[in-house]
Amino acid sequence: MPHSETKDADIPIISISHPTLEVAQQVLSAASTHGFLFICNDGSILPTSSINKMFDLSARVFSQPTIQKATHAIHTPEAGGLNCGWVRMSGESLDPSHPGDPKEAFNIAPPTSSSPLQPLPSPLSSSATEICDFLGSCHDLCTRILTLLGAALRIPEEEGGESWFADRHDESKGPSGTIFRMLYYPATTAQRGEGEQRIRAGAHSDYGSITLLFRLPGQPGLEILKPDGTWAPVPVNPPSPTSNSSSDDDAKEMGSPPILVNIGDLLCFWTNGMLKSTVHRVTFSGGEERYSMAYFCHPLDGARLEAVPGAVIQAYGDKGREEVGRQRERLGLGGGAGSEVLTAKEHLDRRLKVTYGLKD
Ligand SMILES: O=C(O)CCC(=O)C(=O)O
Ligand SMILES: [Fe+2]
């Protein structure tokens, strides 16, 4: 199929406003086939106005002079410590074989009962309440999706039932690696087709449980790796199931784009590879500037990465063990699927070290 690499990824759009078992099964099916799904956003989940407000703040923070952004440089005490604060241009590599992603980022950790909100620079500081509310809504949505996955996996009641995942993401119970990122990919003068295709965010899978991804109409670039080894673009506004008009052109008529959800490494480990932590990347597309935002939902630090109990994963059996083995190899975790059980924090620390090139 000569054009397969330019055909949009066929990611299902699911409404979860009436969370029945059938909806849960749709979510599980998308998560175990594509590793990506779209959730309809009718505005009750995350109002468009709140999403736009965050994009506004993001544009304003990245337009500050470098010297000002550097006052909250990533990992510094001034920014709130490890994985909090501003990442300079080319300051990280999501694919270490392509060093230095041409992007900036600003990381914000949700406050918890034991740790207050990190210090924020202007203009974020004056919108701290709205930022915290937004992060809270993102977490609520993640909890709803995790509960649907728990239901579809038929985790026995005595083991925690449908709340098995959600309980392990209960922010009131302790610290986690959850992080919200504003991302900015500055305009580039490189032309499409010139030499090696420019990569804005190297090929990677996400480190946490699930990621909510927010993008803007007219700012493409995200691609997922398909099982046949080709890359498929992920539209910002996918055609709705009832229309066959396509994507970003109709952004205005369609209102709020659906929210893109991405399965991360931990759900892959937890389900013996049944749920797919799909590799993705951002290419430079037309070279225009691009903003995106990601809510990386992580479990509590001490959560153990071992198979979830229940009939579905048991029936899935060893089918995914090779896949988990390959993932562990790819992530530099060594060994096969049966190797040591890591905690969520151990896994995250290893991935952050590689991404930022941190020393012990
Ligand atoms: O900018 C995007 O669309 C995706 C970024 C991404 O995949 C990531 O930061 O993990
Ligand atoms: Fe990602």
Automatic annotation (TrEMBL):
<keyword id="KW-0560">Oxidoreductase</keyword>
<dbReference type="Pfam" id="PF14226">
    <property type="entry name" value="DIOX_N"/>
</dbReference>
<dbReference type="InterPro" id="IPR050231">
    <property type="entry name" value="Iron_ascorbate_oxido_reductase"/>
</dbReference>
<keyword id="KW-0479">Metal-binding</keyword>
<protein>
    <submittedName>
        <fullName>Clavaminate synthase-like protein</fullName>
    </submittedName>
</protein>
<comment type="similarity">
    <text>Belongs to the iron/ascorbate-dependent oxidoreductase family.</text>
</comment>
<dbReference type="InterPro" id="IPR005123">
    <property type="entry name" value="Oxoglu/Fe-dep_dioxygenase_dom"/>
</dbReference>
<dbReference type="GO" id="GO:0046872">
    <property type="term" value="F:metal ion binding"/>
</dbReference>
<feature type="domain" description="Fe2OG dioxygenase">
    <location>
        <begin position="175"/>
        <end position="299"/>
    </location>
</feature>
<dbReference type="GO" id="GO:0044283">
    <property type="term" value="P:small molecule biosynthetic process"/>
</dbReference>
<feature type="region of interest" description="Disordered">
    <location>
        <begin position="228"/>
        <end position="255"/>
    </location>
</feature>
<feature type="compositionally biased region" description="Low complexity">
    <location>
        <begin position="110"/>
        <end position="122"/>
    </location>
</feature>
<dbReference type="InterPro" id="IPR026992">
    <property type="entry name" value="DIOX_N"/>
</dbReference>
<dbReference type="Pfam" id="PF03171">
    <property type="entry name" value="2OG-FeII_Oxy"/>
</dbReference>
<feature type="region of interest" description="Disordered">
    <location>
        <begin position="92"/>
        <end position="122"/>
    </location>
</feature>
<dbReference type="InterPro" id="IPR044861">
    <property type="entry name" value="IPNS-like_FE2OG_OXY"/>
</dbReference>
<keyword id="KW-0408">Iron</keyword>
<dbReference type="InterPro" id="IPR027443">
    <property type="entry name" value="IPNS-like_sf"/>
</dbReference>
<dbReference type="GO" id="GO:0016491">
    <property type="term" value="F:oxidoreductase activity"/>
</dbReference>
